Amino acid sequence: MTNPPTPKLDRIDRAILNELARNARIPMTELGQKVGLSKTPVAARVKRLEAEGVITGYRAELSARKLGMEHVAFLEVRLSDTREDSLAAFNKAVREIAEVEECHLIAGGFDYLVKVRTRDITEYRRVLSESISRLPKVASTSTFVSMESVRDRGVAQI
């Protein structure tokens, strides 16, 4: 499988992306002012960045604290089989668990690093036993509970 070519991004494209990462609801006129363009050219660039797949979507950031979802745990997951079909089955199944915020295939002493967000440790234990432990080919897990989120931004600026 080959990756599509990386789009060429100039200084203005990068400035646009950084501003949108800070505030995706910024009006095009204000965005243009911040990056040194008028509304029409900045809107055209945003549309091009969307068409090229550089901008993949927009979303609301929710307050985990106000929603009562502050419990974060990270799991090391080891599989009993790491052939391609086993990885694909795990990948498909883990995407169905609502409490899983992130899941990364890792090169190292374990196979996946999984970020799980729940209301509390009791709910986490339920998700671990009823969902994660039952994923295809899971041999073992190790849990690390976050005591404090020092920085949690999603995507870094470019």
UniProtKB/TrEMBL annotation:
Protein keywords: Activator, DNA-binding, Transcription, Transcription regulation
Residues annotated as domain HTH asnC-type: 9-70
Keyword Transcription included in the entry's annotation: yes
PROSITE patterns: HTH_ASNC_1, HTH_ASNC_2
One Pfam family, short name: HTH_24
UniProt protein name: ArsR family transcriptional regulator
Top-level taxonomy: Bacteria, Pseudomonadati, Pseudomonadota, Alphaproteobacteria, Rhodobacterales
